[in-house]
Amino acid sequence: MKRLLFLFIVVNLILMPSVFAKQGHMKLLAVKETENGYEGGIADLYLEIKPGSGRVFLETFPLTRTDTQMSTRFAKAIACDIIEKDCDDIDFFYTITADSAIIAGPSAGSSIAVLTVAMLESLELNENYAITGTINSGGLIGPVGGLKAKIEAAKKNGLKRVLIPAGEIIVRVDNTTTDLKNLSKELSIEIIEISTLSEAVKEFTGREIKQRFKSIEISEEYKNTMKSLAKDLCDRGNKLKAEAKDLKYSINVSALKENAQNLTIKGKEAFEKQTFYSSASYCFGANVEYSTLLLLSKNLSKDEAIKEVERLNKEISDFRNKVESLDKKTITDLEAYIVVKERLAEAEEYATQSLETLNRTNNTERIARTLAYASERVNSAYSWATFLGKKGKAFNLNKDVLKKSCQNKISEADERKQYVELYFPGTLDTIKKEIDKAAEELEKGNYELCLSQASKAKADVDIILSVFGVDSKQYQNIVERKLEIVKNNIAKEAAKGIFPILGYSYYEYANSLKNSDVFSAMLYSEYALELGNLDIYFKESNGKKKWIDIDKDLLGMFIVGVAVGFIAAFLVKKRNANAKKRK
């Protein structure tokens, strides 16, 4: 009897975890390297989720040609964020299997995110469909390589529909432009362009992820602070302009005066439109020009220039110490701290450059400009420091948490760099230097600067991916699409009590540039995406376990097993009792 009861308990304990686990599967489009170049391939992507502590596991058979670990973690974080689900009490087990080594990496991101959303929301996926694309902040589906080969592989494996990043319907393959609409007709396979994770989930499941936040509710506190910041910088420009008005110069400064005047006008126009970050940026540029004029009028000697640099360096050091002593509790604090530290670091760098210029040359204009830039960078740091200590949702921003977020961002940027270099070997030296610089900040313990530097490096790689084989006529559409996603993302963050001042500022600036400078607009929209929802790196469990949905079939089996076990135990017990009576 005891043995039977023990067996019953063991069997049910073994079955119990599977009741709370869920499993899902979808086809993964990839490319593999062959003697004849890259060929399309299909892999199987599996996901099992169980109650746990927010861990992410990935197994690949065989090993993929690119590191896919960080893309998996990031895709999972974006999936949880897009459906507003706290995933800190769930463990994720991803498995990728293929016949031969594939190139997955960032291009697997959209598939991983779609499967994760489907599992968390108990949605049924159409397994005749597949998707390829990177997954980016805000749920943006980004461009990837090898599209033609992937679509051909999808057809060969019996798939009916392929979802691709919007803007890639016309791609360049071996210096030849290919319209994938023609390939769609030729292969009798449907090709759908999508921009966001929400759109992809709807295509796969028929269910739409509701986006409740369509307009940005700008915090009055942010608006007033940014307005005050812009006003301070523009007022300073007017003061410097008045001081430089009737001064005499030993060199021709007409170009400097003209540039300063143009920037002042742009700053004023932006202020009137209430695009305060743009206004502050233009006025800062004007201030550098006016400060350069003032320094040129003084004809600083070498000793006077050295004293000015020493004064600046002391001011930078004192202000840095003051800022570093402040507590950071909100995302606004974190981003304001990043801006201030970056500006102080830039000021220090330019002050050092001016000394180096002094020792190498007598180019007075260059010396004056570097000194002016350093001085104005310090002034702008003071202005941005007014954002520190504002109200907002509190996060744990201790050194260990910041260090981990920095390490994750570096890994994400490096993973994407490796992916792009497979298609364009040796072309990303500049981005490698940016990632190395982030790693240097990591070593120094400057985790906030590391996070910012790595985020921008990742954004710079994403810019390359954004135009990856895309026709230049599509660039304007790409910018518009990104800005719309950034807008929704910031609106969502604001509704959560988080106002990403950097994300919003870059969004505003990109918006002002989109009609005059599409490449700069694209760059700043990418920065806005990367720095628009940093909170995904700082989420903590609220201590309440929120169990995932239970598999009803397995639960039924478990209940039946328990019932059968009890009945069996009762019958055995009764039989033994009757046997004793007969004896």
Strand and helix layout:
Elements: H1 2-20, E1 22-34, E2 37-51, E3 56-61, H2 69-82, E4 90-97, H3 109-120, E5 129-131, E6 134-135, E7 141-142, H4 147-156, E8 161-165, E9 170-173, E10 176-179, H5 180-187, E11 190-194, H6 197-205, H7 220-244, H8 254-272, H9 276-298, H10 302-324, H11 331-360, H12 364-384, H13 399-423, H14 429-444, H15 447-466, H16 475-495, H17 501-513, H18 518-530, H19 552-582
Parallel strand pairs: 3-4, 5-8, 8-11
Antiparallel strand pairs: 1-2, 2-4, 6-7, 9-10
Helix pairs in contact: 1-19, 2-3, 3-6, 7-8, 7-9, 7-12, 8-9, 9-12, 10-11, 10-12, 11-12, 13-14, 13-15, 14-15, 15-18, 16-17, 16-18, 17-18
- Main sheet: strand order: 1-2-4-3
Proper CATH architecture of the largest domain: 2-Layer Sandwich
Question: Which structural category do the helix and sheet elements fall into?
Answer: alpha/beta
Q: Which fold does the CATH topology of the largest domain refer to?
A: Ribosomal Protein S5, domain 2
Major beta sheet summary: 4 strands, mixed
Task: Provide the low-confidence segments as ranges.
Answer: 15-19, 540-555
Task: Characterize the structure shown.
This protein is of the alpha/beta class. It has 4 domains: 1-20 and 551-583, no CATH class; 22-205, Ribosomal Protein S5, domain 2, CATH 3.30.230.10; 220-387, no CATH class; 399-537, no CATH class. It is built from 19 helices and 11 strands. It has helices at residues 2-20, 69-82, 109-120, 147-156, 180-187, 197-205, 220-244, 254-272, 276-298, 302-324, 331-360, 364-384, 399-423, 429-444, 447-466, 475-495, 501-513, 518-530, 552-582; strands spanning 22-34, 37-51, 56-61, 90-97, 129-131, 134-135, 141-142, 161-165, 170-173, 176-179, 190-194. Helix 7 runs antiparallel to helix 12 (364-384), helix 14 packs antiparallel against helix 15 and helix 15 packs across helix 18. The protein is elongated and about 100 Å long.
